[in-house]
Design a protein that fits this description.
CATH architecture: Alpha-Beta Barrel
Radius of gyration: 17 Å
Number of strands: 8
Helix content: 40-55%
Largest sheet: 8 strands, parallel, barrel
Bound molecules: 2-phosphoglycolic acid
CATH class: Alpha Beta
Distance between the termini: 8 Å
Order of helices and strands: EHEHEHEHHEHHEHEHEH
Number of domains: 1
Length: 248
């Protein structure tokens, strides 16, 4: 398996001065990281981050991308525009967008396709709600979400990153156990394997209340290839500890 990948999802947090301080502390402490590292910032700050991260070990990510190539889509940001600012990754289908912006599996698949066409790696988020888990539907839900992306993107699927984020674990402090996470990651790996002979290249991240104390155990699971970190990515010391825990 390739190097692990640790991604910070800043969500709707940050400010010009706060971003500068956070990047300064991260760059100061990161040294030679044992894994790949990226931060996904609000789009308004991508230009700032593009400058701040230049020459650093931290790559830039966006939190979303339009499913359209360009034109009359007020408020949208295209993959080509993200590329102009050195964006390497784009989160697509985060559960908060599926929930609040009504994004469907098909929207998410289209967004992944736009990102790939622009040379940006989509980080495709999948995950079940608590009700779905309790109803025994976890496997069905995550497979349905991922299959839309596989269906539309064909052999390019080996170029994506997947993030398993159980909705009930996001921002709640209620992390999936390493065993619960590994079980779902193994299901996703099998699904990817059926779609491409390069399945081992696809990194499957875990996200949902990952923090400095639980990261090492989660990241030691066989099919967990990194993390997508929300709250704990806003504190440099915590994020650096998670990065250090992500040995290959
Ligand atoms: P959290 O968020 O780490 O704050 O739970 C993860 C995410 O939503 O990507």
């Amino acid at each position: 398996m390739s190097r692990k990948l640790i991604v910070g999802n800043w969500k709707m947090n940050g400010s010009l001065s706060g971003n500068e301080a956070l990047v300064r502390d991260l760059s100061g402490g990161i040294g030679e990281p044992v894994c790949d590292v990226a931060v996904c910032a609000p789009s308004i700050y991508l230009a700032q981050l593009h400058g701040l991260l230049e020459g650093s070990r931290i790559e830039l990510g966006a939190q979303d991308v339009s499913m359209h190539e360009g034109g009359a889509y007020t408020g949208e940001i295209s993959a080509g525009m993200l590329k102009d600012y050195g964006v390497r990754y784009a989160i697509v289908g985060h559960s908060e967008r599926r929930q609040h912006q009504g994004e469907s599996d098909v929207h998410v698949a289209l967004k992944a396709k736009r990102a790939l066409a622009a040379g940006i790696t989509p980080i495709v988020c999948v995950g079940e709600t608590l009700r779905e888990r309790e109803a025994g539907m976890t496997e069905f839900i995550v497979k349905r979400q991922l299959s839309a992306v596989i269906h539309l993107n064909g052999h390019c699927i080996s170029e994506i990153v997947v993030a398993y984020e159980p909705v009930w674990a996001i921002g709640t402090g209620q992390t999936a156990t390493p065993e619960q996470a590994q079980n779902v990651h193994a299901v996703l790996r099998t699904q990817i394997r059926a779609a491409t002979e390069h399945a081992d290249r696809v990194r499957i991240l875990y996200g949902g209340s990952m923090n400095a104390s639980n990261a090492a155990e989660l990241l030691s699971q066989r099919d967990i290839d990194g993390g997508l970190i929300g709250g704990a990515s806003l504190k440099a010391a915590d994020f650096l500890k998670i990065i250090a825990a992500a040995k290959a």
